[in-house]
Amino acid sequence: MSELNLDLKRPVVICGPSGCGKSTCIRTLITRYPNSFRYCVSHTTRPRRPDEIHGKDYYFISNEEFDAAVNKDEFIEHVMFSGHYYGTSKSELRKAEMEKRVCLMDIDIQGVEKLQKTSINPICIFIRPRSFAILVSINIKLSVF
């Protein structure tokens, strides 16, 4: 694959715990500035939830498809979280680059650490909940704890 050239449009990574508002922040930026931002849809091996749309929320793929993509070096970063794989494909970054828009990424802290070791030089924004009690409440609802 050819090298990514993202000098002019550095990707923006929105990071934070589940339920802290990352998706709301991304939707707001894309709604207000549709010609400036593009959401980078991640790949995952986890099952699709009833309200999720393949290709919009995630690309839902099998473990075998994920392994094949890793072996072909198709991801800029990939991690395992809660028993499922998640990854950001280089092709998603290229789409934003070709559209001359900033790529918005929603990834966890492991993914951020891996991205910072690459040449794409992302801008990382960490969103935190207003309080620890809210974080615990959200994660209990999501069965994270």
From TrEMBL:
Q: Which domain of life is it from?
A: Eukaryota
SUPFAM superfamilies found in the cross-reference section: P-loop containing nucleoside triphosphate hydrolases (SSF52540)
Q: Does the UniProt entry include the keyword Cell inner membrane? A: no
Keywords for the protein's UniProt record, in alphabetical order = Kinase, Transferase
- Database matches in CDD domains: GMPK
Domain Guanylate kinase-like, first and last residues per copy: 9-145
Give the protein's recorded name. Answer: Guanylate kinase-like domain-containing protein
- Example GO molecular function term? GMP kinase activity
* Short name of one Pfam family: Guanylate_kin
Cellular compartments per GO CC: cytosol
Task: Give the family, as the similarity comment puts it.
Answer: Belongs to the guanylate kinase family.
Q: Which organism is it from?
A: Trichobilharzia regenti (Nasal bird schistosome)
